[in-house]
Amino acid sequence: MIRPVLMIGLGEVLWDILPTGRVLGGAPANFAYMTNVLGDQGIVASRAGNDEFGREACQLLQKLGLSTSYLQRDDFHETGIATVTIDGTGQPNFTIKEPVAWDFLEWTADWEELSARADVICFGSLAQRSVTSADTIDRFLRNASPKALRICDVNLRQSFYNENVLRKSFQYADIIKLNEQELTQVSFLFHLGAGAAEVIARRLLQDCDLKLVCITRADRGSLLVSREQTVEHGGVQVKVADAVGAGDAFTACLAHHYVRGNPLQHISEAANRFASWVATQRGATPPITSSQLQEILNGGAALQ
After folding, report:
1. Cβ(139)–Cβ(133) below 8 Å
2. Residues 39-74 pLDDT 10s
3. DSSP SS3 for 129
4. Is 54 contained in some domain?
5. What mean pLDDT value characterizes the chain?
C-alpha cells in the first residue's frame, strides 16, 4: 500500500471574524484541510492559546478530520483572530491581531520529527512577522528532506512583511503562489521592473531559482509560469459567497497534482475549479463529500 502524501500547513491558525459569524481560518489550517479533502494527509503545525478560542479550534480541527498533535498550546498568549470585511465582489480584507499564540511557534522534538518526514510544506510570510516564529519556520524548512516540496504562499497582510522575509522565504521555496497585487508589490521590493505578469514571473523564477510561480487572479483565473511553459486559465464563473480560503484551496490542489507529476494544464484546470467552488461557500473550510468533489473537479453542477 502506498502511503498518503504528507502535506504540512506551517504557520498561523486563527479565527476569522466575518460579518456572518466566526469561522476557523489561517492559510496553513485551510491548506491542511483542503489537502485532506483531496485525499492527502494534511497536518496543521501551528500554535493556539490555552483559552476558549484555542479549545474550540482544537475541537473544530478534529471535527474536520485533522490531527491536533502538532498544534502547540500557549499558556501566555491568546489564540489568533482576524476581523474580516467583504467587499462588493466577495473579496476579503483582513485586520489581524498581534501578538498572539502563533507569533511564538516553538521548535520542538515533535516538530523536528514532523519536518523530517514531510513530503510538502506550505508556509507563508504572515507567520514570520515575529522573530520567534520566523526562526522556528526557518529551522522547520532547513530540517526537511531535500526532496520535500516547499511552497511559499505570499500572504502580504497589513505591514507584516518586508523584502528580507520574502527573499529568505523564496530561497527555500520551489513554488511561490501570490495574487496580482502581491506580484506588483514583490516586483517593487525586488526591483524586478515593470511589465506584464508573465514577464515579472519569469524574472522572479530566475532571480530566486524557483520551479514555478503561480499568480491567482480572483474570478479571472490564474497564471502558472514555469521555466518551460506558461499556462493561463480564464477562471470559472460562479456566484461568490465569500472568497475566504479560495486561494488556499488553489494551493492545496496545486500541491496535490504537482507532487504526482501531473501536467500544468491539468493542475490549472483542477485548481481553478476547486478554488471557485470554495468561493461559493461561506468560510474557508466548507464540508464536502467525495461525490461533490468529483463533480466539482469534473466541471459538474456542484459549481453552480
Report:
1. no
2. 999 999 999 999 999 999 999 999 999 999 999 999
3. coil
4. yes
5. 92
Q: Does the structure show a pLDDT above 70 at 99?
A: yes
Span 192-250, pLDDT tens digits: 998 999 999 999 999 999 999 999 998 899 999 999 999 999 998 888 877 778 999 99
Q: CA-based angle 162:106:104, to the nearest 5?
A: 50
Q: Vertex 20, ends 247 and 297: CA angle to 5°?
A: 35
What total of structural domains would you count in the chain?
Answer: 1
Q: Has residue 296 been placed in a domain?
A: no
Q: What angle do CA 217, 156, 182 make, to 5 degrees?
A: 35
Looking at residues 100-123, what average pLDDT do you find?
98
Q: Give domain status of residue 109, yes or no.
A: yes
Q: What is the mean pLDDT of residues 253-277?
A: 96
Rounded CA separation 6/43 (Å)? 8
SS3 153: strand
Q: Is residue 1 part of a domain?
A: no
199 is written with which cell numbers? Answer: 514577464
pLDDT, tens digit (0-9, with 9 covering 90-100), for 127-143: 999 999 999 999 999 99
| Lateral strand order in the sheet of 92-96 | 21-25, 14-18, 80-86, 92-96
> How are beta strands 92-96 and 230-233 bridged, if at all?
unpaired
3-state secondary structure of 294: helix
- Give the span between the Cα atoms of 126 and 96, in whole angstroms: 10
- Would you say the pTM of this structure is higher than 0.85? yes
d(CA 240, CA 72): 34
CATH number at 80 reads 3.40.1190.20
> Which among 124, 102, 109, 125 has a CA at the least distance from the CA of 47?
102
Residue 83: give the domain boundaries: 6-289
Name the nearest CA neighbour of 220 among 211, 233, 229.
Answer: 233
